[in-house]
Amino acid sequence: MPVLMDNGAGRAAPRPAPGGTAASPRRGWWTSRRRDQLAGLLFVTPQLVGTALFVLLPLGLVVWYSLHEWNVLADTFDFVGTDNYRELVDDPKLPGVLRSTLFFSVGLVVFNLALALLLAVLLNQRLRGTVVFRTLFFSPVVVSLVAWTIVWGFLLQDNGGVNGVAGAVGLDGPNWLRGEWTALLSVIVVQVVKNVGLNMVLFLAALQGVPAELYEAARVEGASRWTQFRRITVPLISPTILLTSIITVVGALQVFAQIAVLTQGGPGTSTTVLVYYLYQQAFQFHQFGYGSTLSVLLFLIVLTLTVVQWRMRRKWVFHEQ
Amino acid sequence: MRKRLTAVVALAAMLGLSACGGGDSAGSDGPVSLRMTTWSANEAHLKLFNEIAAEYQSSHPNVAKITFDPIPFESYTTTLTTQIAGGNPPDLAWVLENAAPDFVSSGALLPLDETLRKTDGYAFDELAPAATKLWQADGKLYGYPFSTSPFGIFVNTDLVKAAGAKSPAELIAANAWTWENAVTTASAVSARTGKAGLVVRDFDYKGWDNLSTIWTGWGAQAWSADGKTCGFNATEMVDAMTFLHQAIFTAKALPGPGTAADFFAGEAGMTITQISRASLLEKQKFGWDLVPLPAGPKGGYSVIGQGGMGVLKKGKHADVAADFLAFLTNPANSAKLAQFFPPPRTPLLTAATLAKTNPLLKPEQLQRVVIDGIANGVVKPNHTGQAELSQAVRSALDPMWKADADVRGVLDGVCSAINPLLAK
Asked: For B115, which of A78, B299, B322, B365 could close a Cys bridge (C-beta 3.0–4.6 Å)?
């Protein structure tokens, strides 16, 4: 796509040759190259229009709204400049929200990637039954998120399935969704189990792309399994680790439904992550202006983290396509 | 490249904006369509509404269509507000009591007095002042309180009998229907049947405003009548909450946090809820009773929840909508609606009238719970900016729901959390 755009295809509306066609020879302006460019542009037009309408336009509007005080019920929409951003800096709840977001995201990313890699390595063995297990671990990915979360909500109740199982083996399980740390942990685990299959499949594909000769050579040289993993597997699948970590970090910062269904941000504000907080401000407290300001903050955080990860790839990603 | 991109965005923005603006101008003269959002998807409710709407349309050819648009109760106000924000407001909307102050004071609703008073045979003065109070601002009525539903206690008499406990009916007869005795009965049910004792419906350790059905018996209130002073750390509230805390964690009369029990599925001995839930008992096999809330240290009391109907000023046909509202709530149609929603019209508030349309309830139950309840009921807590307040109270109350909680300390914490909001 960039190639097409950079060649000036944007201007390439096919002008019917002006007036005297005979004067300008056909191959003058309307070359086959330009025709290809137009065709290319037409092919990407639906995507461009979609992106403009549903990504760029809302993005711009959110920034615009963040400069306003918007009271939906009273039907007022007043320009307040940077007032909302000043409120953001002074918001006494924001540090707690950012802390919850940090704990949640770090916990989720570490758990998710570690488990996904572990499962992928285990399921990459040529043993009977691995297909069954791969299917088993992947299946939550295709389950409806809300249905999945509601079922877990029942399982995590004080008298629910999880504590039932714990009780059967003589353990007294905590009241998962009512303790500050156990609630955070519960939301993380529910989300990890839901999505770990996706990263697992990506890791599996990457693992299968590692040439077997390298391991063979390492074995001949006397490298242990762990050394092989560290020196061969990890570097060779590092592009996939980068990809999954970007996807997972972005995903972690956008988790909403699980929290809305399981904890509504509680107990206290222990699971009020940034997305949930902005939802509360905008849609429950009717402060769309401030809610938009929070979403600008979220956008900047996600953007920064992604850029940082992308920059750091040179340091540790082994090779790029 | 950048210039071109800007052009594309601008074009898309223009397309988007013109698409948004397109709908408004159309159809101001031709037949109009009205839409009313509700939180009830109950078939019987919708059937009645559709019948009334059809009758209205037959005499008003200018109205082509009236639709009732149910929105899930849990997200009702949020969804309604989002529709308004998105430029797609309904013409009429149900409004919950906890959102009433925001809707009434913001100017989102059309004043109704004039339309209602000038409607033939409307009998505006029949509306009970206790019912309309919440829906007024500056002497004008902004919402019609179509449902004024008192809280009562539904009892699973089979479970109470199985527990060998004194039933609420026996306690009432002995003039001993107090919170102490109610908790003793609930505690016995929980200890001897393995089911839950007493469930405060829709509380679930989050919907704290439902606890006003208990603390009002102690004379406690969430905040003062003018909405400026926090009431959570007042002595009455501390006493009421201490009682509740013991009932939950010592007497085990109420299921603890994170434990689900549905009375209407036979999982609890008693539940506090509004009488409009009686319809859920139609197909139940267990024996049941409906009794008023027990007396607290301050004596007998009742608590009411309300639902109002209003006309959105931003709707495209606000005047037509107001006219339909006048028809929907006239004396004849109010009588029909009374089978589901206790009406605000005083002549309809008699046990005999209500019994005709509430076959599941006995006349004495209706008298005790509904009619007496509406006459002297305290409305559930409500305040402008309720959503934010409610969230602040919920999160500050969370530490209360542990066996070793410091009740007084937690309640002080609630006040420090909400004082800045009350001062707004």
From this structure: B322
Tell me the HSE value of B411 on the side-chain side, using a 13 A CA sphere: 21
- φ/ψ region of A268 (left if φ > 0, alpha if ψ in -120 to 50, else beta) reads left
Does residue A140 sit in the same domain as residue A289? yes
Among A48, A272, A285, select the one facing B387 at the smallest CB separation. Answer: A285
Q: Kindly state whether residue A77 falls inside one of the protein's structural domains.
A: no
Are B97 and B69 found together in one domain? Answer: yes
What is the C-alpha to C-alpha distance for residues A143 and A194, in angstroms, rounded to an integer?
Answer: 8
Of B11, B258, B260, the CB nearest to A178: B258
Interface touch B257/A49, C-beta < 8 Å: no
Same domain for B162 and B54: no
- The residue of chain B with its CA nearest to that of A11 is B4
Does the CB of A124 have a partner CB in chain B at under 8 Å?
no
Nearest CB among A48, A269, A288 relative to B8 is that of: A48
Nearest Cα of chain A lies from the Cα of B257 at a distance, in angstroms, of 7
The complex scores an ipTM of 0.79
- The β-bridge partners of B289 are B155
* Per-residue pLDDT reduced to its tens digit, B278-314: 777 877 889 999 899 999 999 999 998 899 999 999 9
Domain containing residue A39? 2-65
CA distance A207 to A4: 35
Query: Among candidates A223, A206, A205, which has minimal Cα distance to A214?
Result: A223
**What pTM, to 2 d.p., does this model score?**
0.82
Number of structural domains found in chain A:
2
